[in-house]
Structures are given as C-alpha cells and as structure tokens.
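Issue 218. Parser rejects a valid record. Input:
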Amino acid sequence: MFKITALPTDDVCALQAGHPDSYGATPERAVSTGAGNPCRHCLQNIPEGEEMVILAHRPFLETHPYAETGPIFLCAAPCERYEGQDLPEILTSSPDYLIKGYGADDRIVYGTGAITPTDQIGAKVRDIFARPDVAYIHVRSARNNCYQARIDRD
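Output the parser choked on:
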C-alpha cells in the first residue's frame, strides 16, 4: 500500500501569503486557464478563472545535485489538503507521468525512473517500492518534468 502526499498546509499557507519560494522570490499571481494548472496542495486542477500562485518549488530540504527545482501552481485561496490513497485528479488528467524512486539520502535510485501510463501508476509504484533502497517516490509531468506529488509507503 502507498499514500499520495501533497504539500504541507503550513508551507502552502505561507506561500499563498507571499513568503519566498525556493529561489527566494515572491510567488507570482495569475488567473488559471483550467486544465493544466494543478494545485500541489488539493491535487485538483485550479478552476478556470480562479486566482492561482506560481512559484519555484524544490521538494527537498537541502540543495544537492539531485534536488530539482521547478515551477508549480497552488490555489491562491485556501484549499483542503489532499489526503488519500486513490490517485487524485491531477494524476489522472495526463496520459502518462514520470515516476522515480529516491533513497533515504534524497538521491534518485537509478533504474526506478519510468514514463508510466496513468492506468499503470499503481502497479509501477508497487514495483518501485519492492526495492528496499527506495524511501519514497516523486511523480512528475512526463512532458515538462514539473513536480506533481510525492508517494510514500503506507
């Protein structure tokens, strides 16, 4: 079993309030165009016409060669943090995703990365977690490499 882990609410609230992003910049404000603007907190697409926040996100505590930083979206207004095991909306709206395992040292575990069709994500996650050297998994956009969510062992 596994669980999908969205960004922590305290971190999201700080960013929504204008605290600096991973590059030390103030998050930008924009209006969502609908599909393609996934919030990394509620893990739903931000509805068309709703205000959103755009920022640089690094899903690692420290910088190192594997600590990728990239753009993400958040709802500008408070939203409910996703909690669950089922694939959330943002992990079902593309035909495939990049999935890769990381060790406890926050380094990519080579041999785990794969562009995975959406309907095969669960099986691929179970396959990656069968390796004892994998501590967690990141799901990224297969097209733009943008961070989507983290998957943890349940």
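Fixed in the parser; the record now loads. The chain is about 10% helix and 30% strand.
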